[in-house]
Amino acid sequence: MKTIHLLILLAFSLLLSQCVVSRVQQKVSDKIDNFPLEHQAKDDGRMDRLHGRPESHTSHADHYTPATEARYAKAYHEGYYMGRSAVKKVARTMILHGR
Question: Judging by beta carbons within 10 Å of its beta carbon (0-12, 13-18, 19+), is residue 92 exposed, middle or buried?
Fold first, then answer.
């Protein structure tokens, strides 16, 4: 009888912990999806968040060429560009240094 109670208690605790884990995962997913991206475009070294290319400031105008656009497009299709500034910085560094 005591074994049955322990098994029921174990099953209940596992179910409860699974519910807690799924709620935390959902909250984290919602926070990632709703992360404000507007402030990330302020830095002159970051890319335009819609097109994955350098912003159209005058400081970028002389660096932006069709070859650069082709490299950004290739990185986008290979999965380097994922919409977050840290990943975009890594992808941009890899592209500009030919890696």
Answer: buried
